[in-house]
Design brief:
Blueprint: E1 2-8, E2 11-19, E3 38-43, E4 69-71, E5 76-81, E6 88-89, E7 94-100, E8 103-108, E9 113-118, E10 125-126, E11 131-135
Antiparallel strand pairs: 1-2, 2-3, 4-11, 5-7, 5-10, 6-9, 7-8, 9-11
């Protein structure tokens, strides 16, 4: 194991490098591009503690069961509700947006009708299957 200091974008990191194939000491080593020659463990400096990230609490899960229930297709953060209570929507119309893993997923109306209730708020965390809104 060798201990090295690496600077990336102005931040210093102490790394431990395990040499897996030291090769002959006298001759320069030629290595195939796909052959691994070392494993690297990055140890962040002790003074650089990461600040905790606030994660929204998941909305209470209410399993979709009614014909007009519009569930979240995945777990994530509700970014927006794109309709209002009382608004008429067509089947397949975008009604909300959920963000998961830095990607937005549009939630579509499961049937045509009038928005009867919105059960979660933008910024709330939702689980897969949580009912976002109801269409009557």
């Amino acid at each position: 194991m060798k201990k090295l200091r690496v600077t990336v974008e102005g931040k210093n990191y102490d790394v431990l490098v395990e040499v897996l194939d030291p090769g002959p000491a006298a001759a320069p080593a030629t290595v195939a591009p796909s052959a691994p020659i070392a494993s690297v463990t990055i140890v962040p400096p002790p003074a650089a503690a990461a600040a905790p990230v606030a994660v929204p609490a998941p909305a209470p899960a209410r399993a979709a069961g009614g014909a007009g229930d519009v569930p979240s297709p995945l777990a994530g953060k509700l970014v927006s509700i794109d309709v209002q209570v009382g608004q008429t929507v067509a089947e397949g119309a975008q009604v909300a947006t959920v963000e998961a893993m830095k990607m937005n997923t549009y939630i579509l109306a499961t049937k045509a009708g009038r928005v009867a209730a919105i059960l979660v708020n933008p910024g709330d965390g939702v689980q897969e299957g949580t009912v976002i809104l109801q269409i009557a």
